[in-house]
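== Polypeptide entry ==
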Amino acid sequence: MTRFTIEPPFAPFIRSDLIVLQRNTHGMILLGAHSAATGTALSTLANTSQQLVSEAMKNMEDSRSEKSSLCSSGSASLLDRELECHEMRIERRRLVKAGFIDEARQFDPKIEFFRVQKIKAKERKERDLLESKIKSLKMRQVKLIQELKVKQKAEREQVEAASMKSKVVLVQRHQADFEQVLEKIMIGGSEHGRGTNYPRFKPTFEAKRNYENAEALRAKERFKEAVKYEKKAKKLDKAEEASWFEKYLHATVGDHPNSVIAQVLVKYQRSVEQHDRNLDVSNTSS
């Protein structure tokens, strides 16, 4: 006689039917029924067991139909899907262990469906997380750029203020130096070029000779003649001094590139331009 071994969850149903069938067939065995009757009973037992398994599987499918519809519509949570898929895997293993291979294969499409849904949900979650991180990074980048612009503006204003202050100091130093140069030129002009690089004024040979003649005549008490030579010498000195002073002004404050004032102004201008270039370099590097 063939013995059936069925594991839960269908074991209670099958055992109860086996008990009923055993009771029904017990009298036949005791009465010594023919072996054909025994075979008929065994066939009936197998058919009954198969019907019970089919009914159990149908009940399981009906109980999961609602959950499956929820999963397919996307309204069920990921945890519910995981639990349902886990239950289906357990039932499949039980059926395989019980020997119901065809019935166990009926769970494969649903398990595969849940597996694909799990992969899609994971990919969707990773995509949403990536988009969230990208959005967060963009917002942070915008914030950093704004902060950097504010910082650069403040630093630029600070540098410009410091540069303007240093430029004012430079111009003031140039102005003071220029005033000293003018004063030196004026003093040099009034003192026949003393303290300057320009050749000093010197009387001409003729004027010197007239001064010497005047002194000699004065020593001889020939005062009228001495005054005559002295006036002649002063006249020559005055004309020569006027010529020298005109040349002195042309060399010091004349309107040409080689004058002292023009060269001083060029030096000041170059100093200011170098200061501005240094400011541009510092702004570019910052």
Notes: The first helix runs from residue 11 to 30. Residues 1-39, 66-76 have pLDDT under 50 and may be disordered. The helical segments are 11-30, 35-73, 78-98, 101-105, 108-190, 205-219, 223-253, 260-285.
